[in-house]
Amino acid sequence: MPSDQESLPAVGVPDASEAETSAPEGLTFAYVAGVTPGKWIRRWEERMPDVPLHSFMSDDGAQLEVLRDGSADLSFVRLPVDRDGLHVIPLYEEQPVVVAPKGHEISVFEEVALEDLAEENFLDVAAMGGPEMAMQVVASGAGLVILPMSVARHFNVKDTVARRLTGAEGTQIALAWPSDSTSEVIEEFIGIVRGRTAQSSRQPSAQQEKPKKAPKPDRRGTGAKKPAVAQRYAPNPDKGRGKGSRKKGKR
């Protein structure tokens, strides 16, 4: 018999490593300010309810670092980026705006041309510490900045005004992930972002074999067919000739 100090082996309790392997593989993605991933998250939850999906917002300066250090499996980035070792799929272009302090003369217009702002002082967003801090500096009256419209709306700094800007080079949002990292969950997410339907043959979830339905029982039976009933009356020769086609006669 085992002594009191000896522990009996646990029965029916899975090992920690076994629990990890049996758990569904999750997916994590990052996104820069201005990207609204809600629609992709909702579609994922509809199609892949058993696979956890996590997301977080990253700074523009760290949009690739989250892929290098493994914090995220994929990242929505703002181009241009260094594509070395990455798969990059451009998604859509962003509308540029000019952000000025409240009360600036551009506030009376809905749209402004870049050439009309040649005399203005434009600030370097990166040198200011990012878009939110740059907009704070703009609010103080120190100058103007050019940003994607989605970013200006996201931070919405008080005492600033943003107007659509023409003649300026726009920015583009893309989806990036490491070239050596591929899996069915990543392919599924890429397909969702690119607008593929759940029934698309390129979606891994649609390629899974579905159980075949059992054939419907034959309700016709195995008995002999009933003999055709002989016609009792001769067909009416006048049928179908139209009104007045039959000659009238005396009885």
Automatic annotation (TrEMBL):
Belongs to the LysR transcriptional regulatory family. Pfam families: LysR_substrate. Keywords: DNA-binding, Transcription, Transcription regulation. Residues 39-123 form the LysR substrate-binding domain. InterPro entries: LysR_subst-bd (IPR005119). It comes from Arthrobacter gyeryongensis. CDD domains: PBP2_LTTR_substrate (cd05466). This is LysR substrate-binding domain-containing protein. Residues 209-221 have a biased composition (Basic and acidic residues). Residues 1-21, 196-251 are annotated as: Disordered. The keyword DNA-binding applies. Residues 242-251 have a biased composition (Basic residues). The keyword Coiled coil does not apply.
